[in-house]
Amino acid sequence: xxxxxxxxxxRSEIRSARRGAVHRWRQTLIPTTREVPSDATTISHQLCIxxxxxxxxxxxxxxxxxxxxxxxQRICELIREEMDAAGASELLLPALEPIELFxxxxxxxxxxxxxxxxxxxxGRVAALGPTHEEVITELxxxxxxxxxxxxxxxxxxxxxxxxxxxxxxxxxRGREFLMKDAYSFxxxxxxxxxxxxxxxxxxxxxxxxxRRTGLDFTIVEAESGPIGGSASHExxxxxxxxxxxxxxxxASGYAANVEKCEIGERKWSLDGAGPEDLVKHHTPNLPGxxxxxxxxxxxxxxxxxxxxxxxxxESDRESDGPRWIVAVVRGDHDANEGKVxxxxxxxxxxxxxxxxRAAGFAIGYVSPKAAASIERTMLVIDPDAAQxxxxxxxxxxxxxDEKDHHVTGFSWSSDLAPALGAKMTEVRYVKVAxxxxxxxxxxxPRGGGTLxxxxxxxxxxxxxxxxxxxxxMGFEIMNQDQKREAVIMGCYxxxxxxxxxxxxxxxxxxxxxxxxxxxxxxxxxxxxMKPEDEKHAEACERLSRELCEAGAxxxxxxxxxxxxxxxxxxxxxxxxxxxxxxxxxxxxxGVELKARADEGKGELVPLGEAVARCLAMLGA
Length: 620
Hints:
The protein is an alpha+beta fold. It is about 25% helix and about 25% strand. Strands 4, 8, 9, 10, 11, 12, 13, 22 and 25 form a nine-stranded mixed sheet that branches. Strands 1-29-28-30-31-32 form a six-stranded mixed sheet, with helices on both faces.
């Protein structure tokens, strides 16, 4: 179910029970700049640098400067409140993880070069934690021995490391980043204290967190990736600049990322001869599907794309199941590894080129007929490819199972069924199933509507891990029947630094950042036109003190700068409310108030009413 939220909950994010803080610009570090960094391609990266929130130290590594760190602390405050309310307890795990911990889960292999490894003076290899499933499982294995100690949910806010080959987009894809990760432990899935109950509680807590930030977001069904597990959901901040594609059905509310999105029912048939005879064509030195299609005077949609997979686990490769899986999709579509896994019944990976060629596959020129000529080959055909002819009513074009050659006029009933020696749908290793990425315009799997695409930035991801890590690491405890049982786990991640960047991507204008009240570094900025003037200073002291007593955090711009510079900087750093103290307003017994999000000039407000008006503008 999709749930999008554009406004925060009806609650004040100004804590009247606590005293706010007052800081002066000249006593902190806010190095604003008008220049756009040449290497910053996203608006959040540009504004983070220009507004003095962060400074790059190395590739994908940043200092958090005072304004940026205050935003981070605001986000952490919200997270802690909602995690504690959901029954989780905070701890802190080490950033450095001994490589031996990955022996059972094999995630060092799954992560590959993303895992940041290093060796100490004694030759011991460790990794900088990308997440902490292994560490938390090892901790719980030593500390929990009975079902009476469960359920339990623990969380931390910790720096993570992933050795991105090409870090980019500032805080959106760095090598070092701040993340909240929580882990829950259970002996059952359903019922009181079960995984489902805590998963739902975490799901609801995430909704509250992102509502309170004021972000517009979508919750989507997702693949679990290298974390593993069964069900998972992503929390996506809706932004045109987002790097993730989301498929949404407005009729039913269904939403999923492109890796997970199902496609509704599509008619298919493997019967019926194609309209053209089978003809072989010489197609040397052509760049992919589009190049071949152009050479053959066809479109990519007239071609069949055959992608060779193999079981990811050695035990599956050595079993009596399929040794090879060939996914067949239309040439303008992309095979989906997760769906191929589900259709074939085994975890898969792209086939090793050398091994596949040795088995007889002409990689780059594979046709569906390989299923008949190479033993233990399973054919998974997408419904759009399981047609007698291409969309343009021509016979299919596909590889010829020979280097530099393709064929046209291919049809399932004429060219493959006879080779298999039986009706295709009765052959053990032939299956028609959804095995491609969904695209806009596809039928929705729910509600009868169609799917549309939108862009998003992933800021949260929750998983039902099951026993993936506990079984791999031998974490078992005594159940009520005094029998040992593997513990069931859940995992709940939230990108803290990424949320900062995603907020800017969604909330900015031509002049700078538009911070929501809940996570703004300060609530009110007081701009002093004449910092050395006694009347100006007295009015500033009164306003800042009263705002502080009401729980608001105040930044005073006391620099000896021109008004234009101060106003531009105020817009750039994006504090929600600006109060300007100048001669003209003071002569009329007031100050000028302006909400950052409002266009035009501010309004004159009597000095005695300014605090109440500021708090009202902040929703307090």
